[in-house]
Amino acid sequence: GNLTIIARTISNFSSLNTEFTQDFLGGRRFKRDELEGFYSALEHNCFGQYQKEMSFHYINNHIFQFRNLFFKYVDFTTGYLFNTPIIKNNLQKNIFNTFTILENKNPPQQFIELITNGFIRKKKGVFVSVNPSDLVDYLLNSYFAKIKQVSTATINTIFALHKKIKKSKNKKYFKRQQKRLRLLKIKIKFLNNFIGNIGDIEYNSKKDFKIERKKILDNKKRLINNRLKNINDVKFFVREAFKEEIKSFKQNPNQFVLKRLFKPNFPRITIRSINYASFLKYLKIRLQYKIRENLKELFFSNTSNISTLTRANSGL
Predict the structure, then answer these.
(1) Rounded Cα gap, residues 303 and 312, in angstroms
(2) What confidence tens digit (pLDDT) does each residue in 253-297 have?
(3) Which residues are paired to 121 by β-bridges?
(4) Which residues make Cβ contacts (< 8 Å) with residue 46, sequence separation at least 6?
(5) Considering its fold, how many domains does the chain have in total?
(6) Which of 127, 219, 235, 243 is exposed most, by the fewest CB atoms within 10 A?
(7) Are residues 152 and 11 in the same domain?
(8) 136 and 20, same structural domain?
């Protein structure tokens, strides 16, 4: 029915527009003016009979349905790609060959610039690109913002537990009280290890905690900044992060290749300590995630790879 018409239209669009193919596989919802070709294709049903205009949401939902079918029938695992002696089709062959090249080379200069220019921040209510020369400072500020976020959530829990423990004196809830005391001890210990003995101090308010935290974090940030003065080129870290991303691509043999390229997963970054080594690890992961977000550009920026995708697309 209409899904078949939409599938055919997607195939036609993909053969003419590389950007559309990447947006389709990436799961982007299309704007109304981008769907003009779909409206005209759906004027008549599969039997040639006129039908009323489909809604914007209806078309997008059917595009998503077809995308799910595409991944179900066309996608393949990294284990299959790298461990199967005979690769069956041109799409797999092209991806395998591109990967083999990337595995043994530094990323192209153009791709490195795409990564270093790919970060944005909010400035006076407007999103602006981060200048590559400011990228390390930007990521350092993000690192400490995350630390503040985690420590604020922890101190909020500590204050809430203190309040409940003081309020509850009923022996009937002894087990619950003991559970709260154990959790309180865990949270204070975490804060001690994370920030640095800040959990031993008694605070009258969260404001007092934040004042003390600022002193500690400002000092730690200064120490990290002193060592960052030796970093002249963030591109070195991009190249290192690129190697890690290519390496991680092969680690899970059950991972689906096209999903990894077009709908990548970005696990939460956990910070366990606050020092130079911890920040470098954070910086490399952030760069690796930006590489992961854009890695498809190296696999599908050329015409041959897009055309094989299109043929696979039309074969469903």
Answers:
(1) 14
(2) 999 999 899 889 999 999 999 999 999 999 999 999 999 999 988
(3) 128
(4) 1, 2, 4, 5
(5) 2
(6) 127
(7) no
(8) no
User: What do you get for the CA distance between the two ends of the chain, in Å?
Assistant: 14
52 and 137 in a common domain = no
Over residues 69-82, the pLDDT tens digits come to 888 888 899 999 98
Same-domain pairing of 165 and 19: no
Spatial distance between the Cα atoms of 147 and 50, rounded to a whole number of angstroms: 59
In contact, 112 and 239? CB cutoff 8 Å: yes
- Residue 41, domain member (yes or no): yes
Q: For residue 50, which phi and psi values (nearest 5 degrees)?
A: -65, 140
Do 17 and 132 reside in the same domain of the chain?
Answer: no
Mean pLDDT of 54-67: 84
Whether residues 284 and 148 share a domain: the answer is yes
- Residues whose CB falls within 8 Å of the CB of residue 55, separated by 6 or more in sequence, listed in order: none
- Domain residues for the domain of 274 are 106-239+262-308
Residue count of the chain: 316
Q: Considering the entire predicted model, what is its pTM?
A: 0.81
119 closest CA partner among 130, 110, 109, 127: 130
Could you give the CA distance from residue 193 to residue 313 in angstroms, rounded to a whole number?
Answer: 52
Exposed / middle / buried, residue 301 (Cβ in 10 Å: 0-12, 13-18, 19+): middle
Using CB atoms within 10 A of its CB, is residue 313 exposed (0-12), middle (13-18) or buried (19+)?
A: buried
In a domain, residue 88? The reply is no
As a whole number of angstroms, the distance between CA 216 and CA 196 comes to: 8
**What whole-number distance in Å separates Cα of residue 194 and Cα of residue 154?**
10
> What's at 135, amino acid-wise?
L
